[in-house]
Specification:
15 helices, 2 domains
Length: 362
Amino acid sequence: MLDQELSLFYDTAPILSINELQCPLPGEEVLWMSPNSEVWHSTMQSIYAFTPNVNPVAPSLLDFFQEFIHDNLSGRRNNLTPQQLRLLLHPLQSMLFHLRQMLSCFPEVLPPRRPAAGTVTKATTMQRLEEVQSLLQKWYDLTMNFEKANPGCPVTRCNLVLYHLVALNAVTNFPEIERLARRDRFDGSYWELSHRRNRCIIQREEAVLHCGQVFKLLRLMPDQYRPNWWAAAAYRATLVLWAESVSRVDPSYQTEKTNVTNGTSGSPSSGGLVPVDQVSPGDPAAMAYVWSRDGVAVLTQPDKTTMGLDKPADVLNYGIRSLDEAVSSRIVDGIRRKLIQLDKYWDVHLRTNSTLGNSAAA
């Protein structure tokens, strides 16, 4: 679990490999509380579906993951624990990290000549990425089945936050977003902003929905059940939404937005508001927003009014307010100061570009 957290929040490859994780997983509570070996033996058989003639052994994470990818866990989903489900995110995150790293090695403009048969290409790597996304969806379905049977489970809420952060890595490039926040190699032009936007966020609507879900789940967590990294989760969601909002000052985005609204690019938008920090991913409005770009994503403020995502300062203030909702700590204070400094750092730049854009239009 610690290896996954460090990998996720530091954007590094996990140290542990799934092939190395072959020792038995800790058993369920009912196994630890067995009064004798006979009860333990029969319980093991009922939980893991062993035959009476086979000596039961608790599965390893490798065994568990193999069962998962072969779709053999759905038959005994009632016996899954939130800890087991959380551990499954480790190999999924590892697969995703290496694929995203591979994608970064391909040029943004594909070479004109046809690749030789068997060559690893951006298209084949994207196909593998979609397979991992499909496994993530399968994990989400298993977790939601557990959540329905055990509503309000604090470990499950923690798992879901991690899931949305892992899924975000499939549709965004967070290190690139942080480079944009620092204005690293950024010349300040609209062209460069548009270019960087496409490198930062690959699938805009899906990224926005995952960020909204992170805020929604964190809001449901009482202070005593918040993991140590909850503020880092809020920071990542805030920065992704900020990168999306910064891109909207680009005139080309405004043109694209107008085309979508007029129905000239993709499906026409009905203009309905989609509060991404309130709806569930399976909500019809959320699905229409992700798949058809139908609707306008908004966030919900403390007074229940909604806030658009077109003003970077508003997005950062929303993230800062989310940090103020729980007990403060050194990491919370540090991240809060970081977001405040980011707002100040970009404020002058955005106002200057807005003035230049208005002058050019005049």
